[in-house]
Design goal:
Number of strands: 0
Shape: globular
Order of helices and strands: HHHHHHHHHHHHH
InterPro entries: Ins_allergen
Low-confidence stretches: 13-23
Pfam families: Ins_allergen_rp
Keywords: Signal
Distance between the termini: 37 Å
Number of helices: 13
Largest sheet: none
Number of domains: 1
Strand content: under 5%
Structural class: mainly alpha
Helix content: over 70%
């Protein structure tokens, strides 16, 4: 149970906080993570792992070499480099961007290290997916405290503020939508969808959390 909890918290932090983590913002990221009710999230993660087939299948895929190859293909795409270029043009350092992408780079190996079991002792599986898990998680996050912390970081006008403002710009969102519908990347998105990882939905969840800020 503890191993399941740790591995899923890693996934939660990656998806929810990928929009705010930078090379010199590791301490800021820890502040956000520290606000999360870890025991509650661990309970949700363990319960869903036992009864939700699609959720379990998504975790299994995310720790696989197939996902690592797919992510590498996305990272090397023109669309992805355009997104990074936009962020750099708005003051986000290259080192910071490398730290963001590095979180996902390390995800398969991190999940494999936790030795997530492939079988569970139940025969009935529900069909809730990774998105529904993320939505359940954000319901238990302390929204007012997250909002206050985001507002404080923005007022400090450091790297967090630059990245936060950049990802909220309409132009960046349009570029993100273009990447999500790009024929060049469609094979990657379809593979992830076949393994119950709906990128569009997870991006929406991430932006819901980001919208809690000023």
């Amino acid at each position: 149970m503890k191993l399941i909890y740790i591995s899923v918290v890693t996934l939660v932090v990656t998806v929810i906080c990928v929009g705010v983590a930078e090379a010199d913002l590791k301490s800021d990221l820890r502040e956000f993570v520290d606000l999360a009710p870890r025991n509650r999230i661990g309970y949700i993660a363990a319960r869903r792992y036992i009864v939700d087939y699609q959720y379990r299948a998504a975790l299994k895929y995310l720790q696989s070499s197939r996902f690592a190859r797919t992510w590498l293909g996305i990272r090397n795409s023109t669309e992805f480099h355009d997104l990074l270029g936009f962020l750099q043009a708005h003051g986000v350092s290259l080192e910071a961007l490398q730290d963001v992408t590095g979180v996902i780079d390390k995800l398969p190996n991190q999940l494999r290290e936790f030795h997530i079991p492939s079988k569970v002792p139940v025969s009935v599986m529900m069909q809730r997916n990774l998105e529904s898990f993320m939505r359940e998680v954000i319901q238990v996050l302390p929204r007012a405290r997250y909002s206050g912390l985001m507002a404080r970081k923005v007022k400090e006008n450091g790297d967090f503020a630059r990245l936060y403002r950049a990802v909220r710009q309409q132009e960046f969102k349009q570029m993100l939508t273009k990447a999500q519908t790009s024929p060049n990347l469609m094979a990657h998105w379809l593979e992830m969808r076949a393994n119950y990882v709906e990128v569009n939905s997870l991006v929406q969840v991430a932006y819901e959390v980001i919208s809690w800020g000023p």
